[in-house]
Amino acid sequence: MASDEFTNLIALVFATRVTPADTVDEIRAGVEGLGALLPLMAGTETADVDVDAVAGRWFGVDRPALDDDGESPVVLHFHGGGYVMANPGTHGALCSRLAHACGGRVLSLDYRLAPEHPFPAAADDAVGAYRWLLAQDISSDRIVCAGDSAGGALALGVLVHARDSGIDQPAGAALMSPWVDVTGSGASILANAAVDPVLSPELLQHWATLYAGDALADPSASPLFADLGGLPPVMVQVGSREILYDDALRTVERIVATGGEATMAVWDEMTHWWQLFAGLVPEADAALDELGAFVRRVTGTADT
After folding, report:
1. pLDDT band at 63; cut points 50, 70, 90
2. Is the pLDDT of residue 304 over 60?
3. Residue 143 belongs to a domain
């Protein structure tokens, strides 16, 4: 059963649900206001950084966020927001909790947004950020790509790019309710539409068009349609009430079908973006602790 904190929060979300009629400026202002209400965990250090001409923000634990001890995990995080909104600041609580949970640092990328910068701008920025980390002499086996919603697709796309480019792959990927199919072909898009208070089929279609235009089925826009073989371990979290449930399910099924390692954690009664509310609802804290344990395992730092 969902906690009282989560139930009350979802009642508020239902009352302020975004629709396609809202302008991009309006929804950006709304998520900025929401992010301002979500505090970082105590002991979190932050530092802004230029990531190959794209802004980013480090989140570290009990030491200057730019300091690298050469051993701790580094999570490369891509925020969600339908490719049209949000930034590292709106996801500060999530990134802060994840940094604490994995015992390392999180680099959240402020990738370019649509409609000003449509596909493939965000995907190109994501790949560039991973290559930038490697250029900082951070070993690939300490790096985990992570992302929520649209950011989950960017994280998965980085894995595919690394494999196809012959560069060292990251240690794994942690995907939170990934939006990996912007064509909207998942059955849960309609099946869960009445119980997901955050997203609607119409909203997803609107954002998909703003982002990818006529390239919806391009594997770089919808990485569900890419070859998902030969990837490092992937963990996927999804709420049982989400319209993106089938995006998560099909991602795991297709990776496993190739002989790869993929784990799907279904959180009962949770809706889209619940991890964003770290520090406010216990389900968010527990979900990020679960991802932190995954990061520690795949980077070989579970006992550090």
Report:
1. confident
2. no
3. yes
What is the chain's mean pLDDT, rounded?
Answer: 94
Residues with a known catalytic role: 149, 242, 272
What pLDDT is stored for residue 64 in this prediction?
75
**In 3-state terms, what secondary structure has residue 158?**
helix
Q: What is the CATH number of the domain that holds 146?
A: 3.40.50.1820
Distance of CA 299 to the CA centre of its chain: 18
Is the residue at 132 inside a domain?
yes
Residue whose C-alpha is closest to residue 76's, from 21, 16, 130: 130
List, as one string, the DSSP characters of 234-257: EEEEEETT-TTHHHHHHHHHHHHH
Amino acid at 84: V
For residue 161, tell me if it sits in a domain: yes
Give residue 11's pLDDT: 60
Query: pTM for this structure?
Result: 0.96
pLDDT in tens, 217-267: 999 999 999 999 999 999 999 999 999 999 999 999 999 999 999 999 999
Say whether pLDDT at 1 is over 70. Answer: no
Q: Which residues span the domain enclosing 59?
A: 4-298
DSSP string for 74-131: EEEEE--STTTS--TTTTHHHHHHHHHHHTSEEEEE----TTTS-TTHHHHHHHHHHH
Cα(90)–Cα(30) distance, integer angstroms: 10
Domain count of the fold of the chain: 1
Nearest residue to 91 (alpha-carbon basis) of 288, 271, 263:
288
**Confidence class of residue 55 from pLDDT cuts 50, 70 and 90?**
very high
Residue the block writes with tokens 């649900």? 17
CA-nearest of 22, 37, 213, 194 to 117 is 213
Residue 262's Cβ-side half-sphere holds a number of Cα atoms within 13 Å equal to 22
Domain-embedded: residue 163: yes
